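pinned: reference chain
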Amino acid sequence: MRVDARFRHSPAVRVVTSARALGRAKAGLADRLSELKIISKQQQCPLVESALTIEARFRLRRQLRYLWQRQTRADNSIKMTIVAQNLGIDRDLLTEILLRSPTFGLASEQISQSQQQNAVIENKYPQRVILPQAIADLQTLVNQNLNRHYSSLDTLEQIEPISLLPQSC
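pinned: its C-alpha cells
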C-alpha cells in the first residue's frame, strides 16, 4: 500500500490458503498458524491487542491521512501537534514527512520507522485480551459504527470459522 493503490472488496472474491506448516515469509500465515496450534495443544488462549487499541490505531491513521491530504493548510497546526504527540514523534518531523511524501503509504512507512513502536498507544491501552474477547469487542465496535452509517448488513454472507483454539476459550 506504499503507492496508495486503490482496491475494492468484492463478495465474489474467494481466498484459498495452503495448510503448509512451514512458510516462505518470515512471520507469515504459516508461522502464525503454527503458533496457534501450539497454544491450542497447551489448552491456552492467545493474547492479542484489545479492541480499544485497534480502534485507537485506526483513528490515528485516519487523522494522519487527513493531515497528509491537507498538508499545505495553515489551520492544521493544532491538529498536527496533537497527532504528533499521539504518534510519539516530534511535530516538526511529522510536518516534514507529510510535506515530502508523494503518497500516504510512504508517509505512513516513514512515520513508523521514526516512532518508538507506537509506544504512546500501547502505554495508553496496554491491556491484551484473549482472542475470543477481542473478537467480540471488535464486533461490538464495528456494529456500533456501522449502525451510525448503514441500516443493515443482512446481505453479507457469514463464513464458518475454522477453530484452532480450545473450545474453553
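why pinned: Residues 43 and 167 are 9 Å apart (CA to CA). The beta strands are 47-49, 128-130.
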